[in-house]
Amino acid sequence: MGNWRKTWAWGLITTLWCLFSVGLASIAIPFASIFVGRKRAFLAVARLWVRIMARMAGIAFSAEGWETLPEAIREGRQPVVFMSNHESHLDPSFIFATIGVHAVFIAKRELAWVPLLGQLIWFMGFIFINRQDRSKAIESLRSAATRIRNGQCVIIFPEGTRTTDGQLRPFKKGGFALAMDAGVPIVPLAARGGFELLPKGSPRVFPGRYKVIYGEPVHPADYPTREAIMEEVRARIQRLVKRADALPVAAD
User: In a 10 Å sphere around its CB, with 0-12 CB exposed, 13-18 middle and 19+ buried, how is residue 92 labelled?
Assistant: First the structure.
């Protein structure tokens, strides 16, 4: 890894490119979707974005565990709720780059008003939640459950926001109620490295390692309460995080 990638100036250039590329993606994805569909267009752009950004920033990126998930999940025949820890703004793109099915995030409503990014995630069918209005939030989750039952996979950060110290935060219950209502498995995963690469509040991307690890599905029907499911999923994500820390990362 070149020492120039470790300089503040290059880190700032990489960050500015990331912001600029969001604008490019907001144009490229809708255009490409005319020819190949939204799913293929978004996955292709997300994977290309991650490869370019990782090379520019000096990030060694790898992923594992997707190939061991049940075939019905990998082929998109079984909708699921993916649940991940949340360390950085980099997490959504790196997760998208490794998921082989069309999945959307459940995001806070405020993101819909961010120029370019808001238009892009609206186009991709993200589910927006008004966290300031409990009744509207519940209504949005019920609508999301219907979409999941109809085949839509979703991705949730059950912590609700990014970590401030690199440690796993307490989980919120909404995502687990959603999985139970929809009657679908939860796939835990660990997105590890983002806290060091792009910490909360940082103006630059740093070189380093990033790994995504998928765990075995958790079936809500196997647990007596929502709290029991939440405890199990949190424990599995915690183990996946520790596993990511212990394993070497090979460049993707």
Answer: buried
Does the pTM surpass 0.85? The reply is yes
How far, in Å, CA of 24 to CA of 166, rounded? 31
Q: Please name every residue paired with 83 in a beta bridge, in sequence order, or none if there are none.
A: 156, 188
Average pLDDT of span 225-243:
96
- What values do phi and psi take at 171, rounded to 5? -90, 150
pLDDT, tens digit (0-9, with 9 covering 90-100), for 31-82: 888 888 887 888 888 888 888 888 888 899 999 999 999 999 999 999 999 9
Check: CB of residue 217 under 8 Å from CB of residue 80: yes
Q: Which amino acid is at 123?
A: F
The CATH architecture assigned to 3-246 reads: 3-Layer(aba) Sandwich (3.40)
Strands (E), 22-87: 59-64, 81-84
Q: How far apart are CA 81 and CA 155, in angstroms?
A: 6
Q: E strands within 69-207? A: 81-84, 103-108, 127-129, 153-156, 186-192
For the chain, the domains span 3-246
DSSP per-residue codes, 75-107: TTSS--EEEE----TTHHHHHHTT--S-EEEEE
Return the number of other C-beta atoms located less than 10 Å from residue 135's C-beta. Answer: 8
